[in-house]
Amino acid sequence: MVCAGAVGAEGLLLLGWMQSRIKRLQAEILAEGEADPEEDTAVNAGARRAAPMSLGQVRALEFEAPPATFSLRREKGILVGNVKGDDDGYCANRVRLPPDTPGRLLALELNLLSGHDDLYAQAAQAAAKLLASVRT
Q: What totals of helices (H) and strands (E) does the chain contain, helices first?
């Protein structure tokens, strides 16, 4: 997994969730590049666009499960998903990202939950372990 500019909570929680669900997962998280520059909102006031990528947000995720490789990459306001297999199979999908930040979307989801969320707790615990292993 690659985060923009620095390893952040978004990447750690996503990777922590994956590790809590897939016990033999070999995970690596690193920072690459920079966050998106701030846009002039006066120029695009009428157009609702995806929020710029902030420091520490997930820029790319690659998951290998031989014979297939799944990858997600954020390119400006577009999420590009690719699946490649060893039988010359290839599938690509592009989706426009919602205008809300991932943190706000997660907060909305958590507000819908009532009581204790075991999956979130396990993901947070795995993320804390990942954070301890991140090299700076």
A: 3, 6
